[in-house]
Design brief:
With about 130 residues, this protein is mainly alpha-helical. Helices cover about 50% and strands about 10% of the residues. A two-stranded antiparallel sheet has the order 1-2. A hairpin with an 8-residue loop joins strand 1 (about 110-115) and strand 2 (about 125-130). It is elongated and about 140 Å long.
């Protein structure tokens, strides 16, 4: 007896095995109930999760701010009245200074400036005219 040859893979062996295999059974003619189509799972984006978590926080902050403003309303009204009174006082003081200064000087000096420029970013040139 001779020596046996080692086994080597035969590429045609798989094809012969497939040819000898029985054909698959035919599909049923009419299925009684259609099989449900699987829905692909979609991941929730990170920005949507972040927004969903921030929404109650922002809403709670707005609610707390509205409660705080409701308690502070009388003080805020008094504060705005005090600020308007300060504005009126400053305006009256400025008017008094302006009128007092206008009475002291007999003649006022008028200054006129003539400025010209060419283009949007052109260099401006000008002259000053003193009127007495």
């Amino acid at each position: 007896m001779g020596r046996r040859q080692p086994l080597r893979p035969n590429p045609h062996f798989a094809l012969r095995a497939l040819r000898r295999a029985p054909p698959p059974p035919p599909p049923p003619a009419t299925p009684a109930e259609p099989s449900p189509v699987p829905v692909p799972v979609q991941r929730i984006p990170v920005w949507a999760k972040t927004t969903a978590l921030l929404a109650p926080t922002v809403g709670g902050g707005i609610g707390a701010a509205s409660i705080g403003l409701a308690y502070a309303a009388p003080g805020l009204i008094a504060l705005t009245e005090a600020l308007w009174a300060a504005v009126a006082l400053i305006a009256a003081g400025g008017a008094a200074l302006f009128l007092g200064r206008a009475r002291r000087t007999p003649g006022s000096t008028h200054i006129t400036q003539h400025i010209t420029a060419t283009g949007l970013f052109g260099r401006a040139t000008g002259s000053t005219v003193h009127h007495r």
